Amino acid sequence: GAVVSQHPSWVICKSGTSVKIECRSLDFQATTMFWYRQFPKQSLMLMATSNEGSKATYEQGVEKDKFLINHASLTLSTLTVTSAHPEDSSFYICSARDFRNSNQPQHFGDGTRLSIL
Amino acid sequence: QKEVEQDPGPLSVPEGAIVSLNCTYSNSAFQYFMWYRQYSRKGPELLMYTYSSGNKEDGRFTAQVDKSSKYISLFIRDSQPSDSATYLCASANTGNQFYFGTGTSLTVIP
């Protein structure tokens, strides 16, 4: 149980393109989803936390107009990297949990490797 | 001081060895403790989850929490090459705030 699906797994696109990444909880309702960024051989860096039906809370230094997060349903959140540039190339990972069940940990997707040319 | 401290390693052991991975945390309000395994170019996979002091065992894996010393450990018995990965510890309170260690890179040599 507790499966989180993330799509696409790898995307390569030209500079200036906007890219959308989807994160779905397949067998539970995700009241809260988290978006992380990870550079090679480094730990997870939390970008934002989103609660279903509410605006996302962004961590300090993360541009909310650059990284648009939508969490319109209990099973789907999207991250859109707008006007992506090479410095946005990274590994993006989502996770989800059911906040109503305070005992539930975060469950992660398999990540999206974003390469901007 | 970071909320969760973890020795980054790298750690290299021969196949069959017992592996000990450790973290410390600073906030006594943390109630939930997790270990995740992350293979290269994959998302973290939940290995162990506990919310009390003591040991929790699952196959070759044992998670240990000592709330009095704010110390969490993961033991891997009979380590296998397939255990080679980065292991992340995490702590959380009753809200939505999770704190991750920086990860320990483990290599099990056949």
Could you explain how this protein is built, in words?
Chain A is mainly β and 117 residues long. Helix content of chain A is 0%, strand content 50%. Chain B has no helices and eleven strands. In chain B, strands 2, 4, 5, 9, 10 and 11 form a six-stranded mixed sheet that branches. A five-stranded antiparallel sheet of chain B has the order 1-3-8-7-6, with no helix packed on it. Chain B is globular. The mean pLDDT of chain B is 93. Chain A binds chain B through residues 2, 4, 6, 32, 34, 41-44, 49, 91, 93, 95, 97, 99, 102-103, 105-111, 113, and chain B through 32, 34, 36, 41-46, 49, 51, 88, 90, 92, 94, 96, 98, 100-103, 105.
Gyration radius from CA atoms of chain A, angstroms: 13 Å
Mean pLDDT over the full residue set of chain A: 92
Give the termini separation of chain B: 37 Å
Compute the number of strand runs of chain B.
11
Number of helices of chain B: 0
**SSE class of chain A:** mainly beta
Biggest interface reads: A-B, 25 and 22 residues
- Work out the radius of gyration of chain B: 13 Å
Order of helices and strands of chain A: EEEEEEEEEEE
Instruction: Give the terminus-to-terminus CA distance of chain A.
Output: 37 Å
Count of separate DSSP helical elements of chain A: 0
* Mean pLDDT figure of chain B: 93
Summarize this structure briefly:
The complex is a heterodimer of chains A (117) and B (110). Chain A is mostly beta strands.
Which tags fit this structure?
heterodimer; A: 117 residues; mainly beta; seven-stranded mixed β-sheet; four-stranded antiparallel β-sheet; 50% strand; B: 110 residues; six-stranded mixed β-sheet; five-stranded antiparallel β-sheet; 55% strand
